[in-house]
Each structure stands twice: as structure tokens, then as C-alpha cells.
Design the sequence.
């Protein structure tokens, strides 16, 4: 009655454990590669969005500089003290309401709403940014 049963593992059990370890490590490696690939795609998309936003900002700053030049030349010619004097000089897409000039820069996916305050008096600062708002054009915006 004093028999003790002893459990022994043969070479087959060690092989099964080794196969399971190798298989689990392979799965973890594949998941790491997939995660790295997805992170790379996300960073590429993020870089594209940043480039597009900077391009819109550059277009807005160029429009601001053009507008400042128009106002400077209008003042040099003795005009530019009223909105009625300025309205015909504004580029297409810009509108003036009171002492606010607004326009929108767009790339088809994003829109940058720009608004500047115009000082008709002969002050040193002709324009001052009041709004510079970026918005995304979504599918819902296109249908409505």
C-alpha cells in the first residue's frame, strides 16, 4: 500500500511545451509588427493633416498681406476711410461688414474662417486678427 505513483514527462511533453512557447512568441511578434505598421500609417496621416493645415494658414496669411497692401495703397491715394471705398478693392471672396473684413480659405476637406478688424483711422495698425477658426468639412456638411 505504500506505492507512490510518480508522474514523469517524456520527450513528447517537452516538445509540446516548446511548440506552445514558440507559437505564442510568434503571435506576439506578429501583433507587434501589426501595431508598428498601424502606428506608422497614423503618423503619416497626421503629417498629411498638419501639412494641409499649414498650407491653409499660409494662404490665409498671404490673403492678409494682400489685404494689408490694398489698404495701404488706398490710404496713400487718399481713400480707404470708409467701407464703401474699400469694398470694390477687395479680392473675390472677401466681404466687409462695418469694420470687419472676412473670408474663407478652403482645400475641399478643411475650411479656415478668417476675420480681421479694419481700422479706418490713420493708425499704424491697419488690420488685426479677430478670428482664425479651422473646421473640417464632413460628409454631413456636404449633404446639408
Sequence:
Amino acid at each position: 500500500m505504500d506505492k507512490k505513483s510518480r508522474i514523469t514527462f517524456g520527450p513528447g511533453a517537452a516538445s509540446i511545451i516548446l511548440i506552445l512557447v514558440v507559437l505564442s512568441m510568434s503571435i506576439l511578434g506578429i501583433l507587434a509588427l501589426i501595431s508598428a505598421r498601424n502606428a506608422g500609417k497614423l503618423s503619416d496621416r497626421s503629417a498629411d493633416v498638419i501639412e494641409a493645415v499649414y498650407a491653409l494658414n499660409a494662404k490665409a496669411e498671404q490673403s492678409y498681406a494682400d489685404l494689408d497692401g490694398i489698404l495701404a495703397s488706398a490710404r496713400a491715394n487718399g481713400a480707404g476711410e470708409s467701407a464703401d471705398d474699400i469694398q470694390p478693392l477687395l479680392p473675390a471672396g472677401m466681404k466687409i461688414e462695418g469694420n470687419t473684413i472676412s473670408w474663407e480659405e478652403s482645400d475641399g476637406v478643411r475650411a479656415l474662417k478668417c476675420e480681421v478688424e479694419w481700422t479706418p483711422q490713420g493708425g499704424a495698425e491697419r488690420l488685426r486678427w479677430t478670428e482664425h477658426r479651422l473646421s473640417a468639412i464632413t460628409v454631413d456638411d456636404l449633404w446639408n
Summary: The chain has one domain: 12-143. Residues 12-143 form one domain. DSSP finds three helices and four strands in the chain.
